[in-house]
Specification:
340 residues, 9 strands, binds coproporphyrinogen I, seven-stranded parallel sheet, globular, two-stranded antiparallel ribbon, alpha/beta, single chain, TIM Barrel
């Protein structure tokens, strides 16, 4: 069975031998070949150069023979076209020179909803698709809430405080902002699907700062609207959000990325048997030893009783991870055989 066939079976809930494996941030700074290629270049230069983006996307596939590639890009790329002065600074992260301060700014927001804004992304996907026909290819975008938090706070947020203050003070402008971002995300995903990705994942990295009622009121409507327009398999990964799973279940995704705040077994009890789960090895283990990695992973895989499951980490891999530990993780998952 090829990796693509494995993924197709998993989404259909067919019996399979082992789970497919990929992991969040698999193309990135823990890889010496990424660091070598990145030297002297800005993030923008790498993402917008299809040859480089393709090479970076394929680096973890070549090294570990993973089942899926995720296109080297970022949830924040729409901000480049929106002229918000985005810079992704090495060691610091994303900084926006022009965050949204006044509610009236929401009316004037530029909407990059055509492929003309992302020619590099389309080209990179087409090239990767051609190079690895037997692998699963993942496209992605941020959720309207996480993107709104970057637009309002101008950087990675520690608590989404400014975003929530904005939402309470200007409820109409906030709803309009999330709705506009939903249009942007929808087109960003459709562009990737047209270019050849097999599945999409929505990252809601800062969802964990919201209560279930805030999430239901502010985020669920735009999120549901996006997912309705997508007809390839779709996973939502909301970090720090096990308390939101009962709400997230209503958005009609095919699967849920599970972080370290809940066990797979408990997550399964919430989402039910018909949904796929993805996760949730703690990336901290990848800075220990191969035997601890294997022990941690065995604990997780032993809980899997339903073929609708994809192996992944509970959050993005850390830059200090050991290649030896990552290799052990991949080999252990690929060597695993289900007993059901
Ligand atoms: O391999 C992959 O996973 C593909 C590429 C990818 C993805 C899926 C990158 C490349 N970024 C992302 C998603 C992303 N970007 C998220 C959601 C995932 C998550 O919650 O971890 C977020 C919040 C961002 C925003 C962003 N871009 C940050 C801040 C993260 C934070 O926690 O504050 C940073 C540091 C970036 C830059 C970036 N994007 C990607 C890479 C490899 C890098 C680092 C660039 C470098 O310094 O070399």
């Amino acid at each position: 069975m090829t990796s693509r066939e494995l993924f197709i079976s998993v989404f259909k809930g067919k019996d399979i031998e082992r789970p497919p494996i990929w992991f969040m941030r698999q193309a990135g700074r823990y890889l010496p070949e990424y660091m070598a290629l990145r030297k002297g270049k800005t993030f923008e230069q790498m993402v917008m150069n299809p040859e480089l983006a393709v090479e970076i996307t394929l680096q973890p596939i070549i090294r570990f023979d993973l089942d899926a590639a995720i296109i080297f890009s970022d949830i924040l790329i729409p901000f480049y076209s929106m002229k918000r002065g985005l810079e992704i600074k090495s060691g610091i992260g994303p900084i926006l020179q022009y965050p949204i301060v006044h509610p009236e700014e929401v009316d004037d927001l530029y909407l990059p909803i055509s492929g003309k804004n992302f020619p590099y992304l389309i080209e990179s996907i087409k090239m990767v698709r051609e190079k690895i026909p037997d692998k699963w290819l993942i496209g992605f975008a941020g959720s309207p809430f996480t993107l709104a938090s970057y637009l309002i706070e101008g950087k990675s947020t520690r608590n989404a405080l400014a975003t929530k203050v904005f939402a309470y003070r200007y409820p109409d402008a906030f709803a309009k902002l999330l709705d506009k971002l939903a249009s942007i995300v929808t087109s960003q995903l459709l562009i990737q699907i047209n270019a050849g990705v097999d599945m999409i994942q929505i990252f809601d990295s800062w969802a964990g700062f919201l209560s279930p009622s805030q999430y239901s009121e502010w985020v669920l409507p735009p999120l549901t609207k996006i997912l309705k327009k997508i007809d390839v398999p779709k996973i939502i990964y909301a970090r720090g959000s096990s308390h939101l799973l009962p709400v997230l279940k209503k958005c009609n995704a095919d699967g849920y990325g599970i972080d370290g705040t809940i066990s797979l077994q408990d997550a399964r009890a919430i989402v039910g048997d018909g949904k796929l789960l993805q996760g949730n090895l703690d990336p901290a283990l990848l800075q220990t030893s191969p035997s601890l990695v294997r022990a941690g992973l065995t604990k997780i895989l032993a809980q899997v009783q339903n073929p609708r499951y994809i192996f992944n980490l509970s959050q993005g891999i850390d830059r200090n991870s050991s290649i030896e530990c990552v290799t052990e993780m991949v080999n252990a998952v690929k060597g695993w055989r289900y007993s059901f």
